[in-house]
Amino acid sequence: MTSAKVEAFLDELNCGEQIKNLYRRYGLWYGWAAMFAIVLANVAALMTGTIINVAIPDIMGAFGIGQDEAQWLATSFLASSTVTMLLSSWSIQTFGVRVTVIAAMSTFMAGAVLGGISTTTDLLIAARILQGAATGVITPLGMSMVFQLFPAGRQGTVMGVTSIGIVLAPAVGPVLGGYLIDSLNWRYVFLMGIPVSLIVLPAAAVFLPGREENAPRPPLDWQGLVLVSIAISALLIALSNGQREGWSSNFVLLWFALSALGTAGFIFREKHCQHPLLDLRVFGHYRFVMITILAFIFGAGLYGTTYLVPLFLQIVQNMSATDSGLMMLPAALVMGSIFPFSGRLADRIDQRLLIGGGFFILAYSSMLMVQADPYTSWWTFAWWVIVSRIGIGIMAPVINLAAIQGLPMEYLQQGAGAMNFIRQLGGAFGVNLLSVALAYRTSFHRDALLATQSYDHSDTFELVLELQRSLTGAGLSFWEQQQVAYGMLGRIVHQQAIVLGFQDGFLFLTVVFLITLIPISMLRRHHMRSSH
Question: In whole angstroms, what is the distance from residue 229 CA to residue 225 CA?
Fold first, then answer.
């Protein structure tokens, strides 16, 4: 490749000297090599974000904990990654992309080892926090680097191709996790990301740019970091304990109040800080604000369905971890095949059509899942999941691209960080709220069903008699048979309540996805620039 062609290509880029020098050293293929290192880092980190979902039933059994406590294995990861996403921009300006990725992947591997050897749930949650913290720093890099490594007109295509790995990883995670759990045990789901991380470290050292010389080193807004951590953590704690402690209890109200104070303090701090963790001026752009609202709902739906589906399959259908994970594989392959096309379309047609169409398909898929019960066939459920991933495949690259397009260059890093922060925040609250809703609606349906199960009720009477007949050869007296029969009836009612609780969860997602059509209709059309 002649230097003239490289220099002509560099004239189209809006990047620093570090990236330009690396292009001059390696040629025009350098951009893809740098994206490979970043995408691989995201694959290792994001795969771990969802792989834990198929392990939750095994971990609940190993440590004797309930679903309300086990959900923190997913929520703690999402919460910590949400907070550290705000550190990504500061870390790049202070240390450069290369050092940032190497430090984050080292932290990620430390969390993987800790999770693999944990003997208590507290250590498991600590491991998930470490892995989430590393993931949060890495996740925004792909979006911001695309705009520095490639010229306008090619960015949508690159975003689509690279999104294959970044969004495919959370879908493939449960497949590999299920196989590891059934073949070995749940501890290996933590260790799985280490081999990929060992590939990322040398790739990052060779291909990722360092810090720009003479670039300013902004001070860390540690007060803002503490305040946003308090705001998010306190709100998640309040939501997680509301059903058990009572929504009007002093304990829950205290955490809600602490979250409100943390949020108000964070906003005040960021508005008056010279070097804010999150530059609120980025929200002065109308289009960016509307897209981030959609990103919040997208995150809730993506992580919410990835959390609910494996849990339903293992708890309601008694499916193995491998089978529940495999159900996500066909959908993951379909989704990955769609990304390059939707990325190219994002550069050419009205992005509102792609985003709106994607959310509508997600709503349709969730509506289909409302029918799920213990007798739903494997392939039927697999098809429902495929439909949801078609929707995600259509809009995921478009949302990322649409959020950043139109922002001034000085807001690029902040925009990428804020966009991912909002999406991940949606994921954290999606998993948390769905877990709370599942527990609440299961309890509601159990109480409602039990209220109808009196001995005077003809259907109940017939069912108890049938259960008693099945115990005739067990050597029990009539009264013992009746006690056992009523115990079996209670378990049947509880199982039915769980099914109805899951169905309500899928219905909730359907409504939320349909509501997104309102902010989508309020978006202004983005005028695409022609490709070079």
Answer: 6
Q: Are 255 and 237 in contact (CB under 8 A)?
A: yes
Both ends of the chain: CA-CA distance in Å? 18
Query: Widest CA span of the chain, in angstroms?
Result: 94
The CATH number of residue 186's host domain is 1.20.1250.20
Question: Between these two residues, 133 and 245, which has the higher pLDDT value?
Answer: 133
356, 301 contact by CB (below 8 A): no
pLDDT range class, residue 423, cuts 50, 70, 90: confident
Rounded mean pLDDT, 130-143: 84
Domain span including residue 463: 444-499
Q: Which SS3 state, helix, strand or coil, does residue 374 take?
A: coil
Q: Is 362 in the same domain as 463?
A: no
Task: Count CA within 13 A, CB hemisphere, residue 73.
Answer: 29
Q: Which of residues 319 and 68 earns the better pLDDT score?
A: 319
Distance of CA 317 to the CA centre of its chain: 24
Q: Which two tokens stand for residue 466?
A: 């049938």
- What confidence category does residue 485 fall into, taking pLDDT thresholds of 50, 70 and 90? low
Long-range contacts of 198-205 (CB under 8 A, 24+ apart): 199/40, 200/37, 200/40, 200/41, 200/44, 200/101, 200/105, 201/102, 201/105, 201/106, 203/33, 203/36, 203/37, 203/40, 204/37, 204/41, 204/98, 204/101, 204/102, 204/105, 205/98, 205/102
DSSP string across 226-245 = HHHHHHHHHHHHHHHHHHHH
Q: How many angstroms separate the CA atoms of 380 and 360, rounded?
A: 20
Closest by CA position to 76, among listed 358, 435, 348, 381: 435
Reading the block at residue 162, the tokens are 């690279």
Q: What is the model's pLDDT at position 529?
A: 43
The Cα-based distances of 412 to 142, 368, 508 in angstroms read: 12, 39, 34
Q: Are 141 and 207 in contact (CB under 8 A)?
A: no
Q: Is residue 89 very low, low, confident or very high in pLDDT (cuts 50, 70, 90)?
A: confident
Residue 217 φ then ψ, to 5°: -105, 100
| One domain, residues 392 and 461 | no
- Mark whether 385 and 477 lie in a shared domain: no
Alpha-helical segments (H) within 85-221 = 87-95, 97-117, 121-149, 155-183, 188-191, 193-207
